[in-house]
Amino acid sequence: MLWNVTKVEYMHNGHMACPGCGASLSMRHALKALGEETVVIIPACCWSIIGGIFPTSALSVPALHVPFATAAACASGVRRALLAQGREKVTVMVWAGDGGTFDIGLQALSGAADRKEDFLYVCYDNEAYMNTGVQQSSATPGGAWTSTTPGGKEMDFSKKDMFGIIKNHHPSYLATASVGHPEDFYAKFVKAYAKRGFRFLHLLSVCPPGWRIDSQDSVRIARMAVESGIFPLLEFEAGGEVRQTVIPENPIPVNDYIKAQERFRNMGAEEIKALQATIDERNRRLLQHA
Hints:
alpha/beta, Rossmann fold, globular
């Protein structure tokens, strides 16, 4: 697939992200797809810090920082205000972590999705509350170390199915994406930009300190998540079926992904085997609709 990415930068030097941060790389790509007529709504998350402390900002588009639980509600208000001004072409984008999406912001998110509010909600999912010290969230996968689960999150408590939750709200567009596959990532943002109504993009966002990996391995780990089936790249459009947009040509064992990260150091062979069986079954179902 050939794609044309603007050379204009809407995210600049001087941001405060950690080296190898998937959330900062994702924001850079996202804004290149959406363009300068974008307003970014940011609840409490890593990006509350990454963007810079007032009055400075690493973004050249307007950014509104809002309380943890209110991102979708605030985005609804911003969209209505823009409509009242006749500025329909401006894209309103929520940029929230998994804590503000899967957990603390879920009520406002569900309400906005149910009302079919016209904005794009992006969850950059680094699988824990990274900004406050790597605490477990409902997006944390089973077996992963966090500062509140030093022995690893219990396997009985698997990651919340946010894709399924949002799909049941009947959005106009829903997809998963990863900077490890930038063409797919960019194409999905372009498609989300072109649509109206409630849109949701779920990004896997590698966090080197929280995942206990070397920062230079961020993109490699992101690709491994897709190649192992841990994070399939999916797309759903209103009235259609869920489809897999990238099918790995050379799938890798789940064990390779797990062993590449220190946060899974306490997972045993039987737990990894059980996880592989779960992923294999999910992939089998996905391929039926490919």
